[in-house]
Amino acid sequence: MSLYNEYVQEIKEREEQGLHPKPIDGADLASEIISQIKDADNANREDSLQFFIYNTLPGTTSAAGVKAKFLKEIILGESIVPEISATFAFELLSHMKGGPSIEVLLDLALGSDSAIAAQAAEVLKTQVFLYDADIDRLKVAFQEGNAVAKAILESYAKAEFFTKLPDVPEEIKIVTFIAAEGDISTDLLSPGNQAHSRSDRELHGKCMITPAAQEEIKALQAQHPDASVMLIAEKGTMGVGSSRMSGVNNVALWTGRKASPYIPFVNIAPIVGGTNGISPIFLTTVDVTGGIGIDLKNWVKKTDAEGNVVRDEKGDPILEEVYSVATGSTFTINTKAKKLYNGDQELIDMSKSLTPQKMEFIRAGGSYAIVFGKKIQTIAARILEIEPTAVFAPSKEISVEGQGLTAVEKIFNKNAVGVAAGKVLHAGSDVRVEVNIVGSQDTTGLMTAQELESMAATVISPIVDGAYQSGCHTASVWDKKAQANIPKLMKFMNEFGLITARDPKGEYHSMTDVIHKVLNDITVDEWAIIIGGDSHTRMSKGVAFGADSGTVALALATGEASMPIPESVKVTFKGEMKDYMDFRDVVHATQAQMLQQFGGENVFQGRIIEVHIGTLPADQAFTFTDWTAEMKAKASICISQDDTLIESLEIAKGRIQIMIDKGMENDNHVLQGLINKANKRIEQIKSGEKPALTPDETAKYYAEVVIDLDVIAEPMIADPDVNNADVSKRYTHDTIRGLSYYGGEKKVDLGFVGSCMVHKGDLKIVSQMLKNLEKQQGKVEFHAPLVVAAPTYNIIDELKEEGDWDILQRYSGFEFSDLLPKSTARTEYENIMYLERPGCNLCMGNQEKAAKGDTVLATSTRLFQGRVVEDSEGKKGESLLASTPVVVLSAILGRIPNVEEYRVAVEGIDLTTFAPPEKALVG
């Protein structure tokens, strides 16, 4: 059967699912379609024309190469297609966004036919996705006196690709749709268990919220054809949990507008709102698509006559509605006044949603066009030896005389691009920065690959120190979906220049190590900036930002990112940690004490948490920095003592060497380069040339939080509070309860020790507890299943060397096998211990979950509805989060233990302990 016939068969199958034909990305199918177009008598010619014009993916896909070449033939008169004139062919090229289309346009613009060259030049002036080879062709032609090349470069220097775009409308009408009450996790917009379909945008769009919600959105659009539907988190924050580009894509697919009539299922300009605004990393993704994120402030805390916050019987602030955003409400955004209106009534100021920079993103249809546009303008002006025309909003530069720098301000100043020498920037400044480390994970990686193709990138930027493509989110089950997607992803990323978890050539053992753990190891400079395709990209060295797949692609392609310098909140500790407590309890207590100190206000949200942890090496400190995603912080920075940082770097060197020994090094010797950088950094610290990063004593913080270790008297559990009468307070990560709250009675159906929140010490705790309990009770009997998943293979190797893995094997009823990976997800659990493959496992919830309606106690990070466990018809599923010893004991007992049971079980066990630095860590 021909590829075309196979495609037609696939179309019929998709029709049964209510789907349109899948976009074409392969050269072979595109070539067959073109052959049928050239054959005037071909029965499939009309359909082939439609597929060629409207359903072929642009950028650097192999199909785009074939399409661009055929359009060139049409323009030159070498092929005659009555339905595609030369003018229409140029229009199609203008929508192909770089790669082969730019090569064709340059061929035509620099060719001998002056009329064609003039048309090609006009199209090129609208394009921004040009790379070094493209610019070099223009530069050489200009230097040789080519007038067309000069005109194109002059247009770039004036940024006409931007200035000739239509202005943003002064008024944007919106109609509201409340997607949910309370914080909205990106899982609602793009469920983790549908991750396999993310690169098939139309199919994945079917999973947003519910089919009923999708029909309601369509009905609103029919009732208000001149308005955009705004998705709202009522009494909550929109987009918590992760960046989830697929979530924004889905919102845009249902509520936005088409980016191009010739590019299928790529929509832009979504509008989202939340009573408490938009999660920072999700807002970045909204910017990528030229959308608008609004902090609605439609509920406020009630105050008494003296201005004090009025609280309910639980001590929570009582909220009052300022204005209604009930589904179907109509409003107007005035982009000049930067206000939200209900008729003539002004509701809120929208200046933060409509900054000059964000207005540029909206006008250009997304932030990529602006990033690349600024770059091409600068290069063109340099070639012409002129100053670029001042077109774009100037970068916001805030410098406060006499004020010291926080740690993040120091890092941003070091890595800033385009800032005048000697200029010192403080929080609030907008900055372009070089990115040192980039991570792509496997359920968003296919989208990152698509973004790289769409922006015509073919090789990683040389200024990136290291980049890694993981396989951890699809580690649990090697099913048909993973088998179809993952090898293709690994091949693309390997060829692009990343270190990949799986070797496309099959020469080294496939790794499913958790991406955050690998990035934590390959970050070898605490002054580094890290961008990763996951919200838990939060290293204990450097400052790391979880990002959408598009921002990851941009960092890989350009080695840069653009963002404001965030404000910081300083976290320090006092007192002494009790010997029966685990560091995870300190992490949870930090959140609880912060909320208590600030009257329920989350001062961490949208800011950097600068945690003065000092004495914990990178593996253990990561437990804190990782959790800062759940604190809704934008990122975190761990301030370490010199000797602790050296210890962490030595550990990192060893882990990187293991990667080299396994054969994961690439032709650019990236991994060896990281070891060399680590050695250099260690020497700088030892010699005193450049001590470990610390803030200045005179740095200014949004807030300072002091955590009292003395008052942490019992293990702390993050509870989703699934039955709270106030729906907005469920699944928030903010309900932190002591162990005694449960009275030793709450039933536990499954325990999970795993995910990025655990380190080698946690797995040793498991083995030590099992030995301890057997000694105390004569045997170990599980009254609930216990699933254990080490985050990395090297941890298992180290446990084997130290004897702990033998103990875990002895108590387990199941152990993973890489030679025989599971091909289907486990749906039932026995009361045994499962030793699972390294990776995300239950925490991700995209492959395996607990049984519906279960109560799960886990060391992981997620307690969102449906993530680890779904609801059953008769019972809400709930995922409570706790330390490793609490989880292990709960699985053995089948219930949450009381405090005394817990203390007996951990007696003599080496828990993850912590002591504050003896002196303040400031520079």
Automatic annotation (TrEMBL):
<dbReference type="Pfam" id="PF06434">
    <property type="entry name" value="Aconitase_2_N"/>
</dbReference>
<keyword id="KW-0411">Iron-sulfur</keyword>
<feature type="domain" description="Aconitase B swivel">
    <location>
        <begin position="175"/>
        <end position="405"/>
    </location>
</feature>
<keyword id="KW-0479">Metal-binding</keyword>
<dbReference type="InterPro" id="IPR050926">
    <property type="entry name" value="Aconitase/IPM_isomerase"/>
</dbReference>
<dbReference type="Pfam" id="PF00330">
    <property type="entry name" value="Aconitase"/>
</dbReference>
<dbReference type="InterPro" id="IPR015932">
    <property type="entry name" value="Aconitase_dom2"/>
</dbReference>
<feature type="domain" description="Aconitase/3-isopropylmalate dehydratase large subunit alpha/beta/alpha">
    <location>
        <begin position="410"/>
        <end position="894"/>
    </location>
</feature>
<dbReference type="Pfam" id="PF11791">
    <property type="entry name" value="Aconitase_B_N"/>
</dbReference>
<dbReference type="InterPro" id="IPR015928">
    <property type="entry name" value="Aconitase/3IPM_dehydase_swvl"/>
</dbReference>
<dbReference type="InterPro" id="IPR015933">
    <property type="entry name" value="Aconitase_B_HEAT-like_dom"/>
</dbReference>
<feature type="domain" description="Aconitase B HEAT-like">
    <location>
        <begin position="6"/>
        <end position="162"/>
    </location>
</feature>
<dbReference type="InterPro" id="IPR015931">
    <property type="entry name" value="Acnase/IPM_dHydase_lsu_aba_1/3"/>
</dbReference>
<dbReference type="GO" id="GO:0047456">
    <property type="term" value="F:2-methylisocitrate dehydratase activity"/>
</dbReference>
<dbReference type="InterPro" id="IPR036008">
    <property type="entry name" value="Aconitase_4Fe-4S_dom"/>
</dbReference>
<keyword id="KW-0408">Iron</keyword>
<dbReference type="GO" id="GO:0003994">
    <property type="term" value="F:aconitate hydratase activity"/>
</dbReference>
<protein>
    <submittedName>
        <fullName>Bifunctional aconitate hydratase 2/2-methylisocitrate dehydratase</fullName>
        <ecNumber>4.2.1.3</ecNumber>
        <ecNumber>4.2.1.99</ecNumber>
    </submittedName>
</protein>
<dbReference type="InterPro" id="IPR001030">
    <property type="entry name" value="Acoase/IPM_deHydtase_lsu_aba"/>
</dbReference>
<keyword id="KW-0456">Lyase</keyword>
<dbReference type="InterPro" id="IPR036288">
    <property type="entry name" value="Aconitase_B_HEAT-like_dom_sf"/>
</dbReference>
<dbReference type="InterPro" id="IPR015929">
    <property type="entry name" value="Aconitase_B_swivel"/>
</dbReference>
